[in-house]
């Protein structure tokens, strides 16, 4: 059990309005496109922290390091020898039909063979205390800035809580991120590439640039000359960029390699990258490893590449692609959650229990027609966390996005983003679905 | 075996000055088992410093950045190669078995395949030749109806197209039939511009087939680039800034 005094909770609770007001003033927002209109939303903060015991964190940490190391091995393998396919562990279809697989990245080896420098791994804790992995995010996982800024503000609002409890300081994220970027640096300055202020995570891009001492750039300030990436300076000169933490999707990264009409990319960036002249964080092509279909195979990858038993479990998952699994899914559809592998951000998630008889029948047909498009999972009855709502404390579903950084070593940030659903009947906690967030306190003992 | 001299040039002209022009050219033929380069030179004007890389598909990429104002970009490549199609290429990639952006079939193309697949039997080469002939009987070679953005499904709907369209439809059919296939951009004796054809994987090596002419590829063909479809093989791709409204491209190629 958590050894925190109720009084401190209440103090934090008492300051909820104050903290949310501060967040508003700091501009801690995220943008959403809905029906083609851009809206900036406030990401509501709940002052009751999620507390993770030292013991729990220790096993989560080991499990996440293991998982991310295996995923990095997998990415190297897929873009080189493809042993895991040849050995029959992962069916070939799953790789080459995946939208995240980019043939243009074949044969490219990033510096130190690290593909996923910053991994956002989503976990939930079941009612029996067991942690389950829900999703790996190896492309451009966002959200690290929220717990950082929330902690900063809670420190101001409830200083006693930090004096009287053994809470691991989470301010090390800046140093961790800087270290990770430096490890991928091919000679030059650090830069964070943002698509601009109309991006959902623009606040985060600017905040992380400030914290890590990186230049915040947009594509029109960058160019590639002689296979070297440069930042155009105000005085008309140029500064070489050694590592680019890009916050734009793979397809838009280089219009001469990927989508030709991309207006936010940098022409010939891929040639500079292929030549080893610039590090790209995270590596392009990572989407093949965080595909919802590939998720099923991660425990197998851990055994295959590391020869170890997976420490953290996947949620029980079925692939309609396999005959046996299809049969199970057809028979149990009403109790399962079905995910469209091509969607993200909580979109394309359907709970069988929410569907009428007719809709279930219709959905069965869709799955039979496109078995590769879906995965089905048992609904994990995950732990509710207390949330302040008006004068009351109510219980809501919450998950945890843990951040794993791969530099010289793979490290887990002793914090994370706890997201909760504000709707009492919903299991979907994504910020784009109107959820809120909490600070995550990892206890040192 | 045959010794072939090749020459190829393209002129990009803009009606107003452009600047900050990044380009990537896929014009230098790759050195392979089938073709050995005896000589090769590339000239680009205006003068620009360039870099050479090899992309994921084995293509030579020449990239450059023209910062200042200019109204044209010309490039000219000439050389000689020794071509021997009895020597086979074996640079296989599994992605060639899967449909790509330009080759994804629609219902009409799938239906066409279903109708003809009963007769599609024998060795991989037999099947490829059969599909190529079936395509030649259905689609007519005619310029002016399709463009570089036209997909296999769109060209099939029109029932006409040029070499690029024939290649995309044949690749789509081959992949539906479980045969890995790739797009080839190159030069051939029968053409005054650049040509395109298809290679299919026999299970052991690549074989060339020319669907626009419904024939097998021989020593009169020089490969410039290869990939999943046209997208991977575009001879020139570029991004430039300026208030230009149109660009004109003149292309000429000679094999001798």
In words, what does this structure look like?
The complex is a heterodimer of chains A (445) and B (256). Chain A is of the alpha+beta class. Chain A has two domains: 6-309 and 381-442, no CATH class; 316-378, Dna Ligase, domain 1 (2-Layer Sandwich). Helix content of chain A is 31%, strand content 26%. In chain A, the strands form four sheets. In chain A, strands 3, 4, 5, 12, 17, 18, 19, 20 and 21 form a nine-stranded mixed β-sheet that branches. In chain A, strands 6, 7, 8, 9, 10 and 11 form a six-stranded mixed β-sheet that branches. In chain A, a hairpin with a 2-residue loop joins strand 8 and strand 9. By secondary structure, chain B is an alpha+beta fold. In chain B, strands 1, 2, 3, 4, 5, 13 and 14 form a seven-stranded antiparallel β-sheet that branches. In chain B, a hairpin with a 5-residue loop joins strand 3 (50-54) and strand 4 (60-66). In chain B, helix 2 (124-138) crosses helix 4 (163-176) and helix 3 packs across helix 4 (163-176). Chain B is globular and about 60 Å long.
Blueprint (SSEs and pairs):
The complex is a heterodimer of chains A (445) and B (256).
Chain A (H helix, E strand, L loop, with lengths): L5 H9 L1 H11 L2 E6 L2 E6 L2 E8 L1 H25 L4 H4 L5 H5 L21 E8 L5 E7 L7 H13 L1 H6 L8 H12 L4 E5 L8 H11 L2 E3 L4 E4 L2 E5 L5 E9 L22 H6 L4 E3 L10 H4 L2 H9 L6 E2 L2 E2 L4 H10 L3 E5 L8 E3 L5 H13 L4 E5 L5 E6 L2 E15 L3 E3 L4 E4 L15 E7 L3
Parallel strand pairs in A: 3-21, 5-12, 6-7, 6-10, 10-11
Antiparallel strand pairs in A: 1-2, 4-5, 4-18, 8-9, 9-10, 13-16, 14-15, 14-16, 17-18, 18-19, 18-20, 20-21
Chain B lengths: L1 E24 L9 E11 L4 E5 L5 E7 L3 E14 L23 H10 L7 H15 L1 E2 L10 H7 L1 E2 L1 H14 L4 E8 L6 E7 L4 E5 L4 E2 L4 E7 L2 H4 L2 E7 L4 E9 L1
Parallel strand pairs in B: 6-7
Antiparallel strand pairs in B: 1-4, 1-5, 1-13, 1-14, 2-5, 3-4, 8-9, 8-12, 9-10, 10-11
